[in-house]
Specification:
- By secondary structure, the protein is an alpha+beta fold.
- It is 20% helix and 27% strand.
- Strand 3 and strand 4 form a beta hairpin.
- The longest helix has 12 residues.
- It is globular, with a radius of gyration of 19 Å.
- The termini are far apart.
- 29% of the residues are buried.
């Protein structure tokens, strides 16, 4: 099959490398309990009223395959959204952020709060009895960080 393009243009590709500006904060959480239990405890300690949202579907690997992640969202104020999403797929077959399998959940705060407020938030999460650890996570370190944008788009 012949191309309608002039000679030599059929094999030329342009790749746009546009840096993504992540204007939200991410906290990685280690917790062996179910997502609804963690959400309940976080609502109490942070004063947020996160509620179950639609599950997040992330395209994965092969054509037509995907991972499914539980998601909770709530708003502390009109301008601050809180999203708690499970890192591990609900079927146990994949991860939201495969490069970071240590974390069981991610808390996404949109827009990012000042560093001092974020440190207080992380400290409060660490004080929850069922939480093993909570750490600030930099989304620019992950190849699959665009999955956070899918969560925020729900």
């Amino acid at each position: 099959m012949r191309s309608n393009l002039p000679n030599g243009l059929a094999n030329k590709y342009l790749k746009l490398d546009v840096p993504v500006d992540y204007d939200f904060a991410v906290v990685g959480i280690i917790c062996g309990f179910r997502n609804y239990r963690l959400c309940h405890e976080m609502n109490k300690c942070l004063g947020v009223e996160m509620e179950r949202s639609d599950d997040i579907i992330i395209p994965a690997g092969h054509k037509g395959s995907h991972t499914l992640h539980a998601c909770y969202k709530g708003y502390l104020e009109e301008d601050h959204g809180y999203f708690l999403v499970s890192n591990k797929d609900m079927k146990g077959t994949g991860f939201l952020i495969p490069e970071q399998r240590t974390f069981d959940y991610f808390l996404i705060i949109d827009p990012a709060c000042p560093q001092g407020d974020l440190n207080k938030c992380i400290s409060r999460i660490r004080d929850i009895d069922i939480v093993t650890g909570a750490f600030e996570s930099d989304p620019t370190e992950y190849r699959s960080a665009e999955a956070f944008l899918i969560v925020l788009d729900t």
